[in-house]
Amino acid sequence: MTSADTTRGELWEAGLRVRREVVGAEYVDRALANADDFQLPMQELVTEYCWGTVWTREGLDRRTRSMLNLAMLTTLNRSAEFATHVRGALTNGVTEEEIREVLLQATIYAGVPAGVEAFRIAGPILAEHRAAQAAPEESQA
Question: One MF term in GO for this entry (predicted)?
Answer without folding.
Answer: peroxiredoxin activity
